[in-house]
Specification:
Blueprint: E1 7-9, H1 10-17, H2 21-28, E2 33-36, E3 44-49, H3 50-57, H4 60-94, H5 109-131, H6 145-159, H7 163-168, H8 176-194, H9 199-220
Antiparallel strand pairs: 1-3, 2-3
């Protein structure tokens, strides 16, 4: 069975062989062939003959370009990491200021549930009005414990802390995903400490958001 690679697409050249779009254009020019794109019917996948790629990679000109390109990218990565570290240092410095508000502490469980239900219904009412559909409000009984715990955590997170405004501070900053994770972990920890019966739900939500971030990074190829 012939397992020799016959073609490389752009993603493979960039991810596995350190090419860039500019280098592909400069050294390879037009693709040798095309393949259907499973993600889009409006574009094709550009394919470059492997033998031609290998031949270019063996030239002195390409070797000189590759050395400079790797140096530039290493420098850029160091700069990004420095900015990321500065962002996370700010997060760490501010976490002590992110606390449960007085009105959200020491609540009787029935009071917490009532407030969480009101918060949930208000939010869903707004969504219903925006999307022009009917919403049937929930009550303080009749749903599962898992549902009530989820909306209680959400109520405490959004209305009982400065969670939302704190996250907004890091929009557009280098390291925003790690900053958001640190704030989330801290806030969930505050809630779980104050209301131990919600600890499991806090862990679940945090794990779910981390899984979503991993999927996002995988999709972006990070």
């Amino acid at each position: 069975m012939d397992t020799k690679v016959k073609n490389y697409n752009k993603a493979e050249l960039k991810r596995d062989r350190d090419w860039t779009d500019a280098a592909i254009k400069k050294f390879l020019g037009e693709p040798d062939s095309y393949a259907e794109n499973p993600r889009s019917r409006y574009s094709m996948i550009c394919l470059y003959d492997a033998d031609r790629v290998h031949a270019v990679e063996g030239t002195d000109e390409f070797a000189a370009w590759l050395e400079k390109s790797r140096a530039r990218r290493a420098s850029a990565r160091r700069a990004v990491e420095t900015k990321r570290e500065k962002t996370l240092a700010v997060v760490k410095d501010r976490l002590g200021k992110v606390r449960l508000h007085k009105h959200a502490r020491g609540l009787e469980l029935d009071t917490l549930r009532k407030r969480a239900v009101e918060h949930y219904n208000d939010y869903q009412d707004e969504r219903a009005a925006w999307y022009d559909h009917y919403f049937d409000p929930v009550g303080v009984t009749g749903a599962s414990d898992e549902f009530y715990q989820r909306i209680e955590v959400n109520y405490l997170r959004h209305e009982g802390t400065r969670y939302d405004s704190e996250l907004e501070r890091y929009i557009g900053k280098t390291g925003v995903a790690d900053a958001v994770d640190m704030v989330r972990e801290h806030v969930y920890g505050l809630i779980a400490t104050e209301y131990p019966h919600l600890a499991g739900e806090c862990e679940r939500q945090l794990a779910d958001r981390r899984a979503q971030e991993e999927q996002r990074r995988a999709w972006l190829g990070k």
